[in-house]
UniProtKB/TrEMBL annotation:
GO cellular component, one term: outer membrane
Protein name: Glycine zipper 2TM domain-containing protein
Signal among keywords: yes
Lineage: Bacteria, Pseudomonadati, Pseudomonadota, Betaproteobacteria, Burkholderiales
Signal peptide location: 1-18
Domain Glycine zipper 2TM span(s) in chain numbering: 57-97
PROSITE patterns: PROKAR_LIPOPROTEIN
């Protein structure tokens, strides 16, 4: 049973290694030129991004449940309990994977300088945006993140 929990914990930990946080830049996005647009926050509301169900959790849970169940009783009982254990393990493994990959996020409604409105969902970051905040939308490789706009400094006069 300890082995079963260890395997499920490992699956949960590995599947939780991905993030959509605006504070984390993926390696493939480094040193790429990004498009930047100015905007203003109209509203921010908390949302939850549903977790993954890739099948890894179900597969790992099924294997662990099947092995654990097959050790119960004799040969015939072990086979029956092994099948039941595999099914139960798969259900539990799937739930663990889904719950461990859920993310708290925010839906940000924005107005661009040209008057167009956009909405974007991103994981909660270190910045707490509120209505009226000036922001920039940074788009790299088809993915956009919203961050507070830096203060604009006047260009030196020559």
């Amino acid at each position: 049973m300890k082995h079963s929990l260890l395997v499920l914990s490992l699956v949960a930990a590995l599947s939780a290694c991905t993030t959509t946080s605006p504070d984390v830049i993926q390696k493939g996005d480094a040193q790429r030129l990004s498009q930047v647009q100015d905007g203003t926050v109209l509203s921010v509301r908390p949302v939850v991004v549903e977790g993954n169900q890739s099948g890894v959790g179900a597969a790992a849970g099924g294997v662990v449940g099947g092995v654990a169940g097959s050790t119960v009783g004799g040969h015939r009982e072990g086979a029956v309990v092994g099948v039941l254990g595999a099914v139960a393990g798969a259900v539990v493994g799937n739930a663990v994977e889904r719950m461990s990959t859920r993310e708290e996020a925010v839906e940000i409604l924005l107005q661009l300088r040209n008057g167009e409105r956009r909405a974007i969902v991103q994981a909660k970051g270190n910045e707490n945006l509120v209505a009226g905040d000036p922001v920039i939308l940074v788009t790299t490789g088809g993915k956009t993140r919203v961050t507070r706009a830096p203060a604009v400094q006047a260009a030196p006069k020559s």
